Amino acid sequence: MTLDGLTKVYARQGKAGSKKALDNVSLTIRRGEIFGLLGPNGAGKSTLINILAGLVNKTAGRAEIWGLDIDKDQRASRAAIGVVPQELNIDPFFTPRELLEVQAGLYGVPSAERITDELLRAVGLYDKADAYARTLSGGMRRRLLVAKAMVHRPPVLVLDEPTAGVDVELRQGLWQYVRQLNTAGTTILLTTHYLPEAEQLCDRIAIINHGRMIACDTTVALTSRLDRKELRLILDRDLGTIPPSLGRYDAVHKGPRELVFRYRPSQTSAGELLDAARAAGLVILDLSTEESDLEDIFIELTRGGAEAA
Ligand code: ADP
Ligand code: MG
Known about the structure:
The chain is of the alpha/beta class. The protein is 30% helix and 29% strand. The strands form 3 sheets. The protein has a 6-stranded mixed sheet, sandwiched between helices. Strands 2-1-4-5 form a 4-stranded antiparallel sheet. The two termini are 15 Å apart. Mean pLDDT is 90; it is low at 304-309. It binds adenosine-5'-diphosphate and magnesium ion (MG). The site of magnesium ion has 5 residues, from α1.
């Protein structure tokens, strides 16, 4: 899947000005991989997905799905993907079985080639096959939508925030199913604002913010770039100045009795910092550490100069 200079400007009705939701995004998703599009709310993730799904018209750029241009080969390119939308919109009076059958009909899948039962089993809804959709929980609806996206066995499955509103156990189940599909050959594109999800599932990750891509790399390379933690110490008395012996660490005063070290776990251990603080005569009453989160990644990456990948 190739995106080339994809741009979307939403016209704001009734108000002056418009919103550039996607700004010149180019990236390639390789066949067989699980690719993550990571970014905070409002970054432009759904806009990108909805352009691929044919639900939003792009302002500029090109996109190819499975080698098929979304403008020139509209029908074929849409048949090449299955999209699980962010919103859980399901007709409440359909049963899961009916929903999958109707969807298969829309895609022109002949009855003999339908895999309704197989899909219902795969997403753990076989025993709910004939229940009204309105009786399904949020997690079940999400899984039903995954099954719905797969009725025509597309080579590419696109999931927009697949685990939003899904509790922890079901999240694991959903991830497992996504991995299974991937192992069986399906290329996966998913969006998330939740770093652990991208970390656990994805081979490569693109980070977008304000419609711009600020990084695109393998998950391993990205997470090693995020090699940053903070150690916060609460001291027993006011600290006038930072002792000179701590000068070689990145330590800052956050309050009279609070000292914060920023460090790279791959290079410095928290133990070393504690030893150094004690050796400098500090008495530590309490401490905490903090991992870098998505916010830090953005700060880190944008500070280092936007990186077109
Ligand atoms: P994400 O999925 O990453 O949360 P979206 O793609 O939904 O981001 O939104 C990106 C930006 O575009 C946001 O500022 C959002 O308010 C705006 N936006 C999304 N859809 C529309 C629309 N239909 N009309 C106008 N602005 C929109
Ligand atoms: Mg979204």
